Amino acid sequence: SNLASNIKNVSVIYSRANDKIPDLNLIIDTEKQLDVLINNAGLGTDLRKTTKQGYEIIFGVNFTGPFLLTYLLLDLLKKSAPSRIINVSSLAHASVRESIISFQPNDSSSSTGVKYPKLANYHLSKLAQIWHTNVLAEKLSADNVTANSMNPGYVYSGIWYADSNPMKQILLRFSGWLSSKIGRTSKNAALTVVYMAVDPSLEKVSGCYFENVEISKNMSACAKNKTLAQKMWDVSMDMCELSKKFE
């Protein structure tokens, strides 16, 4: 069948499990098969500070929304096995130092309004995507569902332009201009994702990190930390108000 006609795009700018997500509900109700789930959220900057649930907006869009989406589609993915989960991360994940990571919720007396103030920014959201991938790879190992992450490279995508700080906006616009000159096109950056989604030789490959249409060794030591990955999973379950234990 025609591949393009079988691709569905779902936008989840972070909701809770009990919220209505029309596109997602339609897929669950009507689709009998889900062969590949690609989580490709890449908000770089935004004038809004938080999601409506009180989480930092970049972290909420890039990680928490895809975490919830993936969780709610797990039953369908298992029924569709062999199936694949692909999380689009970034080389920026490697810049996060383990010493700055904190999963502590905000003190109720704080005036910041962000429930998990240390779970914020683009770099950490991309690290969290790899943690998510690695936990999924272990939990789904017996279900014939694979999970892998990838770095698309430096892409001209226009995600860096909005910021309320004038000086920072100038810097971001320069970065955007630079990416238009030396960055990859979206089509070129997608080559690795397509390879991960359809190549028959990868049917059993799980828990890996890809770059440039091959498995890469550039996953950071912090990203490989199983304790931090499981802690991020547990906190994410609470953030998304998911009480059901993973079976």
Automatic annotation (TrEMBL):
Instruction: Please indicate which superkingdom the organism of origin belongs to.
Output: Eukaryota
- What sections of the protein cross the membrane? 57-74
Q: Per its record, what are the GO molecular function terms? A: oxidoreductase activity
Which regions form coiled coils?
Answer: none
Q: Which Pfam families match?
A: adh_short
InterPro entries, sorted: NAD(P)-bd_dom_sf, SDR_fam
Mind listing the UniProt keywords for this protein, alphabetically?
Answer: Membrane, Oxidoreductase, Transmembrane, Transmembrane helix
| Family that this chain belongs to | Belongs to the short-chain dehydrogenases/reductases (SDR) family.
PANTHER family tied to this protein: PHOSPHATIDYLINOSITOL-GLYCAN BIOSYNTHESIS CLASS F PROTEIN, PHOSPHATIDYLINOSITOL-GLYCAN BIOSYNTHESIS CLASS F PROTEIN-RELATED
What this protein is called in its record is Retinol dehydrogenase 11-like
Q: Which gene encodes it?
A: LOC115231525
